[in-house]
Amino acid sequence: MSQTPQLHVLGALALELTGAAPVARDALAQPEVGALAALVARDLAKFAPEAAQLELVTVGAHYDPVELLRPGWPLHRELDQLAARAPRAGVARDEGRVIAFGAHDERLPGALAPSPDYAGGPLRLMPFVLGGPADVVSIVGDAFERDLIELGMAGADTALAAQEAFGLQVEHARYLTVHDLAAMTAMQYEHAGLAALWPLLETALLQPEGEAWLDQLPEPLIHYTEGEARIALFSPNAWQQRYAAEVQGEADDATRDRLQRRHQLFEARQRQIAAVLGAHGVPVNFVHCERDADCRNALS
Fold first, then answer.
1. Is the same domain home to 98 and 215?
2. What per-residue confidence (pLDDT) applies to 178?
3. Are residues 64 and 100 in the same domain?
4. Considering only CA atoms, which of 179, 1, 30 is closest in space to residue 94?
């Protein structure tokens, strides 16, 4: 007998924190996770009753948005792969149940440990995967994509349980799909002056096999292709040809000092963008360019 295709809804419980409250714990012990996961399952079924027919997989840990927003959704994929190896005791995959991973001897299974490099941010995320038959997942996925961003507030008891379990000061708790999270991050990056980078990063997230260019002065020249971001590393002459052509040939001290400051700012911007891409799990490769006219070919 043929099996119903399995699909997934990827999302997270988003915890918006107040102030700079210290984080007491970033992971829960296995016995503590079940109660919080049950509240999450209950909340999700309120938004779409069909969610109760699906398998909910989550983890008693919280993460920075950059740890979720990576090509191939590796954190969600890790949850799904660990769940696939969990004993089922006769329960079919298309029957609703909750799998919640917690820490054993203060260690989370697989690659689920939150990175200390991104701890302390104002938004922390407890990821979840809903899996099951394609027709049910489609109904739930459509409902979540339509409604969660506006109506997805967590239950008051869920927010309180997360606050007490993790030792956080939670101001708001809401549910988001990964696409909602990407849209929120795009707005934040726009406010942070990184709007020009977002189309390239969005391609890496939503179409990892695709390609995109950042070719917009005065930004660095970047080509996302074959799963990596190739950043042009200009020779001094190539940089001046592209970014300071109006002073080409001028050689007085004041002009040289001005160009040096502009070049230092450009290099700082290049490092900033490379760091953002790296935080999102996009490999960065610097490619030397001796002449501006040759750079696009060098990055292809």
1. no
2. 97
3. yes
4. 1
